[in-house]
Amino acid sequence: MIMAGYISRNSKSNCKIDDLFVKTLFLEDSENNRLLLISLDLIRVDNDLYREIVDEIINKTELKKEEIHIAATHTHSGPEISTSFWNTLPLTDKDKEEIREYRRFIIQEALESTMDALSNVQKTRLFVGKSYVENVASNRVKPNGPVDPETIYMFGKINNDINFLALNYACHPTVLGPENTCISGDLAGHVASILEKKLNSIVLYFNGAAGNISTRYTRKAQNTECLRMLAQKVATPIYESILRQEYKEIDMPGIETGIYRVIFKTKKIEGDIRKIKELMEILEEQLRQIKAQKTFSPEIRNIESKYEGLKVLLNRINDLKRIDKIEANIGYARIGNKVAMIFFPGEAYVELQLMAKKKSKFPYLFFVGYADGYIGYVPIDEWNVENSLVTYEKIVSIIDPKEIDRINKIIEKIIT
């Protein structure tokens, strides 16, 4: 199949490093308040896919829409899942049919996983904790900019056995680069796999506000060896924190869920096609010069991503001029008085996550990105094509930067 994530990738998938998964967690409190979490090893859950999965589950169960939250891990080494607008690469009719077939498969797997979770409910004590990761996440927009080193984790225990673990860590799972044509869950998949072996339990990885966060300045290469090393750096502190019992029991495990339906304004497209192509030519020359040095450098990916962003913009520019709004959900869940979860439908900058944690009255905040739909990147400031500080994230974003104020207000309602 055609793969998602990198516009410079020029081959379809032809091998597999590790499997991709649909994982489901169902929680229900003593008053029958419910929460269903679904983790998908996909690049995104676009608005149509989110709606199709939710509708299928609602039709087959007694669950309500606000009780269902679906998130992608955002692997860039999986199949394309979108057939219009959000698809990474241009698609042939055959590509589109393969993607539609894969979507049908994903919807069915999500339903079956949900039915299995609903039929295997067990009385469980809930615990929540934090661990800290060093030298994995880096700010790819500002090399010395903020990151969130914190991993929030929640797990259930039956007697002394852990029966699930859900974790939240903000970092683009892009250790494997555009040259990779093997299917993989990348960083998220490998972290989950390591912990599943150590804990003998299912592990759900929920990405965070990772729009400007990746391993660009921490990885030494884009290969499986580096992938395994970085995955260990994320998984080991979680496991050791659990061994040291650095967690607290959720002593009031009532569940509350909800959704804010938001109509986002889109940004105006500035700059003409000629200027965009001129900048692309400059970037091509910069890339040629730095690659001629034949040494691994994060700057290669910086230039490549800017070039790719401009290429995406050229492909979408006519569609963007016709779109003045996009609808999506910002969902939430609260579990007892310790845990809150925000389900954000896109790629927020980490500053939004850090602000939310600072203001939250809940000591353990899951900021789940790539969830319940997709609106793309949400940077915190504007750009224009003449700006020397232009970045991929700003170029391909379709959301009006002024909407960040409204997003902040919704988040504050959830966490305070």
Give a nutshell description of this structure.
The chain has 416 residues and is of the alpha/beta class.
Fold and architecture overview:
The protein has about 425 residues and is of the alpha/beta class. It folds into two domains: about 15-260 and about 330-380, no CATH class; about 260-325 and about 385-400, no CATH class. Helix content is about 35%, strand content about 25%. It is built from nine helices and 18 strands. The chain has a five-stranded mixed sheet with strand order 10-8-7-5-12. It has a four-stranded mixed sheet with strand order 13-14-15-17, covered by helices on one side. A three-stranded mixed sheet has the order 2-3-4, with helices on one face. Strand 14 and strand 15 (about 340-345) form a beta hairpin. Helix 1 (about 45-60) packs parallel to helix 2 and helix 3 (about 185-200) crosses helix 4 (about 225-245).
Uncertain stretches = 383-389
Structural class: alpha/beta
The main pleated sheet reads as: 5 strands, mixed
Number of domain units? 2
| Biggest sheet: strand arrangement | 10-8-7-5-12
Radius of gyration: 21 Å
End-to-end span in angstroms? Answer: 44 Å
Q: Per DSSP, what share of the residues sits in E-state strands of 2 or more residues?
A: 15-25%
- The level of helicity is 25-40%
Question: What is the strand tally?
Answer: 18
Order of helices and strands: EEEHEHEEEEEHEEHEEHHEEEHEEHH
| Global geometry | globular
Overall mean pLDDT: 92
Contiguous helical run count:
9
